[in-house]
Specification:
Fructose-1,6-Bisphosphatase, Chain A, domain 1; 7-stranded mixed β-sheet; 5-stranded mixed β-sheet; alpha+beta; 8 helices; D-Maltodextrin-Binding Protein, domain 2; 2 domains; globular
Length: 270
C-alpha cells in the first residue's frame, strides 16, 4: 500500500479515458496535425486527451495544479502537480506506428510519486506509486517489475530515441562511446526504452533531450522497480533536460562515458 493509492486509482482511470480518445483517433483519415514552434507535431488527439484529463482532474482534485505538454503549466517544487504528456510518441502516432503512450504523473513537492504509462496499441500499461512498487499489465496478466542484475556495460542492452538528437543537444560522440561499450544497442524510443529498463528487459535508456512531462511518470516507475534515474549530469530531478534510466548498477559507468566529449553549450528543448 502507498499513501498515494487513491491518486494511483485516479491516474489509472484517467488513462482509461485517454485510451478511449487515442484509440479512436489512431489512423483517422481526418486527423488534424500542426507544427509547434519547436517544429514538433501535435494532433487533435493530443489536445483532446489533455483537455479531457484536465477536466476530470478539475472535478476530482480541484486543489491540485496541472502541467501538460500542450496546455502549459510548470512542474513546480512545492505542492501537488499532475504532469501530463497526452501522447508521448506523437510522430509515431501520426505515421500509424503503434509505439506511443499517454503519460500521467503526480509530483508532490518536486518528487514524482505516482506514474501511469498507457500504450493501448501495444496492449501494455505500466504504473507505480511511491512505496508500492512498479507494475505492468499486458496480455499475460499483471506483473511486478524488477530491473535487471547486469553489472557490466559489456553485458548490457542500451536504448535511446534518436541519434540526431545527440548531435543537437548533447554529443553524438559521447553516446556512441556508451553504445560501443555495451553489448547491444537499440532505439525503442521515448517512454518505451525507460519502461523496458523497469521491466529488466533493457539495462539502460538514455535521451539527450526531454521535458518534465516526458519523464515524470518514467522516474517513479524506474525507481520503484529498483533502478535509478537522473539527467546526464547525474541530477535525480525531472527538470534537467535529459534522461538516463538504468538498473542502478550501471549508472555511474554510463554517466562517465556520457560526460566524455560533451559540448558544454549544447542547447536544450524549450
Amino acid at each position: 500500500m502507498s499513501r498515494y493509492t487513491d491518486d494511483l486509482v485516479l491516474a489509472r482511470q484517467l488513462a482509461d479515458a485517454a485510451d478511449e480518445i487515442t484509440v479512436a483517433r489512431f489512423r483517422a483519415r481526418d486527423l488534424a496535425v500542426r507544427s509547434k514552434p519547436d517544429r514538433t507535431p501535435v494532433t487533435d488527439a493530443d489536445t483532446a486527451v489533455e483537455d479531457a484529463i484536465r477536466a476530470r482532474l478539475g472535478n476530482a482534485r480541484p486543489a491540485d495544479a496541472v502541467a501538460g505538454e500542450e496546455r502549459g503549466g510548470a512542474a513546480r517544487d512545492t505542492g501537488r502537480v499532475w504532469v501530463l504528456d497526452p501522447i508521448d510518441g506523437t510522430k509515431n502516432f501520426l505515421r500509424g506506428l503503434p509505439v506511443w503512450a499517454t503519460l500521467i504523473a503526480l509530483v508532490a513537492d518536486g518528487e514524482p510519486v505516482v506514474g501511469v504509462i498507457s500504450a493501448p496499441l501495444l496492449g501494455r500499461r505500466w504504473w507505480a506509486a511511491a512505496g508500492a512498487g512498479a507494475w505492468l499489465a499486458d496480455a499475460a496478466g499483471e506483473h511486478r517489475l524488477t530491473v535487471s542484475g547486469v553489472s557490466e556495460l559489456a553485458d548490457a542492452y542500451l536504448s535511446t530515441t534518436d541519434l540526431g538528437s545527440w548531435v543537437e543537444h548533447h554529443s553524438r560522440e559521447s553516446y556512441l562511446t556508451l553504445a560501443d561499450a555495451c553489448w547491444e544497442n537499440r532505439a525503442f524510443g521515448d517512454f518505451w526504452s525507460h519502461c523496458l529498463v523497469a521491466e529488466g528487459a533493457m539495462d539502460l535508456a538514455v535521451e539527450a533531450v526531454v521535458n518534465p512531462w516526458d519523464v515524470a511518470a518514467v522516474r517513479v516507475l524506474v525507481t520503484e522497480a529498483g533502478g535509478r534515474f537522473s539527467d546526464l549530469d547525474g541530477n535525480p530531478g525531472i527538470g534537467g533536460g535529459s534522461a538516463l534510466s538504468t538498473n542502478g548498477l550501471l549508472h555511474e559507468a554510463a554517466l562517465r562515458l556520457l560526460r566524455h566529449g560533451r559540448t558544454p553549450t549544447a542547447p536544450r528543448a524549450t
